[in-house]
Amino acid sequence: MTSFFGVYDGHGGAEIASYCAKRFHIELCNHEDYGNNLSNAMRSVFYSMDEDLQLSDAWRELVTPCNNGWMYFIKAGVCANLSPFPQATYTAPSYEGSTACVVVIRGDQLIVGHAGDSRCVLSRNGQASALSVDHKPDSESERERVQNAGVAVGHSYRKIMGRWVTKKQWGFTDFKGRVSISRSIGDFACKKNERLPPEDQMLTCNPDILTMDITDDMEFLVIATEGLWCNMTNQNVVDHTHDRLLEGAEARVICEELVQFGLPSGDNTTVILVLFKPGAYPAVPLVDTDTDTDSHTSDDVDPTGSNNATASDNNDPANEVDPTANAGSDDSNTGDEVKVDATATAVGSSSTTAVAADEGTGNPPHGALVDTDDEDGLTYS
């Protein structure tokens, strides 16, 4: 069985986050390495999503209502009245982009891929362990790449009530603080250095990939956008979730509570909670706890305390099920213990609503609340 979870935090607009939510998992399932090298497939999809956005505006059709009468009228008018004139050259989104934090669970393995500052945190016996490291320009490893690309790093800014206000985060001073992360999908104004390959650009879509074994002491995952982590530490989030689960609270309710904790940050917040089934595998002694996500690279994060956090190259395609199946499903192949017990999702400050549906039924997965706001996207299957 394969389960997929992902959050996408947009900036400069909602379209790219929405596109990622609709397309990322499909691209992953269609990749040639999906069956035998999932980590390689995941890395490739980060790049292919970026390339799709850069080549043409075909991607916008996925995030624009196709049955919109006005859209049909506009397209018809363009074809009828403007066809004799040269078509405008497509310009990739300059300052619009999205983070991506995706998790795939297959058999006894968990694979995390991320670019940006959305975060995945594991609870093991009540102790928080970061499975991703925030990509900020001020972190040591990221700053070196940014400066090698010839870009200065300084405080970033946010426009509030018509005024630019300095944030604690750092950003690219050359771009007036419009981008405060150092990896994302999109943001092509920050990827224009023709002398450098994509992975060495000042802002890159190159993800960190972490693969680890699932063990019996793993309790749950919290995957969330920056809004939550601005107000709560990894351990705070795990403590609250752990306490509420002991009290019998539903995963859906806990997600909604965590979203409320993220509201004071002023950022839209998306939270996914993934609960593991106990008793599948022996526990691994815990070494790593709540990590400082601004001071490490992905190679420094070994949440198992062992050496099994390496690229996955031994996934068995025989364990596959329909990639659109519900993440919390109990379906499995003979002898393959299902690791996911339940999932729930919540999003704050929603102005639009979308449902990540089982494509076979047209219905949302059981127990899942899926709302999307102006800039956050999410998907799971």
UniProtKB/TrEMBL annotation:
GO terms for molecular function: metal ion binding; protein serine/threonine phosphatase activity. Residues 304-317 have a biased composition (Polar residues). Residues 371-381 have a biased composition (Acidic residues). Residues 287-381 are annotated as: Disordered. Its cofactor is Mg(2+); Mn(2+). Residues 341-358 have a biased composition (Low complexity). It holds the Pfam family PP2C. SUPFAM superfamilies: PP2C-like. InterPro entries: PP2C (IPR015655), PP2C_BS (IPR000222), PPM-type-like_dom_sf (IPR036457), PPM-type_phosphatase-like_dom (IPR001932). Its EC number is 3.1.3.16. It catalyses: O-phospho-L-seryl-[protein] + H2O = L-seryl-[protein] + phosphate; O-phospho-L-threonyl-[protein] + H2O = L-threonyl-[protein] + phosphate. CDD domains: PP2Cc. Gene3D superfamilies: PPM-type phosphatase domain. Keywords: Hydrolase, Magnesium, Manganese, Metal-binding, Protein phosphatase. Residues 1-276 form the PPM-type phosphatase domain. Belongs to the PP2C family. PANTHER family: PROTEIN PHOSPHATASE 2C, PROTEIN PHOSPHATASE 2C 22-RELATED. This is protein-serine/threonine phosphatase. It comes from Oryza meridionalis. The lineage of its organism: Eukaryota, Viridiplantae, Streptophyta, Embryophyta, Tracheophyta.
